[in-house]
Amino acid sequence: KTSSRGNGEGGDSNESSSNASTTDLPFAIGTRVEVRSENYRGKSASSLRTGTVAGHWRKQKSDGRIAPYLVLMDDGMALYAHRTEALMETTVPPMEVTYNIGCRVECQLAEGEEISEATKWFPGTIIQAHHNWAISPIDTPPYFVRFDYGRERPFWGPADRIREIQSKDKSGRFPTLRFGVGDRVSCYMDSRWVPGKIVQTWYREDEFQDDHAAPYQVLLDTGGFIYSPMDDDDCIMKSTLPPPELRFELGDKVKCRVEGGWEPGIIANIEVLNGERLYPYGIKMDYNGEFVYAPCDNDMFIRKILRFKKGDRVECYTEEDGWVLGEVAETEVDDDDDFSHGQIIPYRVRLDNNDELFVESDDDSCIKYSTSPRVSRAEQNSNGFVHVVSRMLINNEEYDEAQEMLQEKIEVMRSKIKNNSSHTDVAKWRVDLSHFLCYMSEVHQASGSLEDMKLALVEAMVLTKLSNDKSKPHRLLDVTSKLATYATLNGDNRNALRYSEEAILLVKETTHGQDSFRLGSLLIETGKLNVACNMRERGLTQMSDGIDILDRLCGSDNKQVVQANEEYDRISCEGERKSDDN
After folding, report:
1. Which H or E run includes 88?
2. Which of 19, 32, 93, 318 has the highest CB neighbour number within 10 Å of its CB?
3. Cα 200 to Cα 536: distance, rounded to the nearest angstrom
4. What are the tens digits of pLDDT across the range 360-370?
5. Partners of 34 in the β-ladder
């Protein structure tokens, strides 16, 4: 009787037990034999298969029995023969070794199962080739192949399960291919078809022999590179799936991985052909003005320049809690799962409740700048904390909850002021009450209750004017700015302009004339109000002054600076057209 096991295991390294017969066997190791088996691979009893004797007195792993012969069959199977009568010597030669070390080949590996036309071909490179392998088949298989999927393993045959990857013809040229650079294709990988784009034809690697090349190098939609060893529908075929959208546009500022690390640049070309290779981007680098090419549109090679840095205070949106406060703890996080596909996570944020949050997109729908400081437990009853909570509730459109919280604080302050005669305490409570009223005006503004917004601000202004503390100019500025906003929302440009002009003077007083983002923004908005109130020259001057301040503070490419410049140009052009008409 005989039994068989799969290709790739070679001879069983377990020798026979000490009780096994040591009688000399008629067929020596290396002898070519034919095997007759009733059960061999389901063939009939008359079916003959050829192989090479590879070992004597070997133990089967399946049942522990000792077999006189281990035969490596020409179809790649390893077979234990328990009867000498099942073997006969043959003159059929062993598999001929025709490929040399370094040759690119494909092999069918079925791990002991029946080989069929559907069995996958695995590409690899021959790293050992033994022309006299039959003398000692276990120790020296015909070939030892380093497969592209990362494993090195022996290959015993048969000959029709190994083939050379396409190479040059006799004239020294490669055959004509079905696809060209840029074509959309699907490649067969891991029992499924994966879409991608051809970036190079007749692709070569250092380990390829001089006359060998793979027909295609393909950039997969998932971000990785592969090459197709054959130009046939078993490996690669045309894809009708649309390509993924590129992340960047012409003119976008990015940073690229170059020899010296990550350096900034600007997208100068999209889908650019450099030599024989197609690249998604050509980037002009800031530091030397030279061009580099990103081979793949993922974060391993090219990244968005993030808006925030470690330590910045931010607000993050969560499905469960809405907008929550925190601090950027880490940028460009290389998460193992995502980075295997070439993507980073922009931010890891440590929330104020000490939880951690990974922010997967750097845009205002997920994360935005916050001016709210981190609040300790001791500060959680302070005005600042109340403001933080009210702003968070407003962002989450929980207006009733915000109004209820603030109304409770306001009533407590009013009661204290009414029932206490201590001048020092009353002065402090007036300050607190004015803060809470300003916070309440923000809730009314967000919910559209403009009359309630005005009432809260009028009371806050009265309380602020009654105080004489050091923070009075800042609170006057806060209330005045909010009154300007109320007048604008109510369509009252005259009063909006009056309050805005007062606010400009208060900003200059509180900042001692220094440039500030608030001053620049306020000058631009006040300038537009002056234009609307037919004081065009003063308005344009204020807009120009405000743009200059923001340009110095934020840079000319800042979004608000760009928008303000566009508005300034539009207003100037409208004025010139009116002058021409007159």
Report:
1. strand 87-89
2. 32
3. 60
4. 889 888 999 88
5. 50, 88
